[in-house]
Predict the structure.
Amino acid sequence: MKKILILAFLAIGPLVSAQSGRVTVKGDVAVNEMVALHVELNNRVKSMPGFRVQIASFSGINSKASAFSLRERFMTDYPLVQAYIVYDEPNFKVKVGDFRTRLEAYAFLQEIKEVYKGYIIKDNIFAEPPQQLDFAPDDLESGEEQ
């Protein structure tokens, strides 16, 4: 019986062949537009999850000026490390660095801890630092940038 089944499969085998051709997928045009929009948005956004060191948080009178002053002092001490000011109502926070891993952020925190007290936070970082905008704290209130 087994011999008959094997002979049948061997006889039918050459007669069976795979179809070859072209596959066309038909779908809603809106789906293609949404995918294209998603790709374009991802190309525009240059941030990714990572870590920064927050060195200060100011609130109250002159908090904005204090944050900008600290940022300038930090950038003088560490010109190769980017510093950011984030307004998280009612605080002005000074965050530094764009670290991909917590270990990189920790190593940098150990380097600066004698002068700048801080802690590691999760944040969206830039793979490539953005262009530096130079403006004074008072320029932000009037909405002007240089």
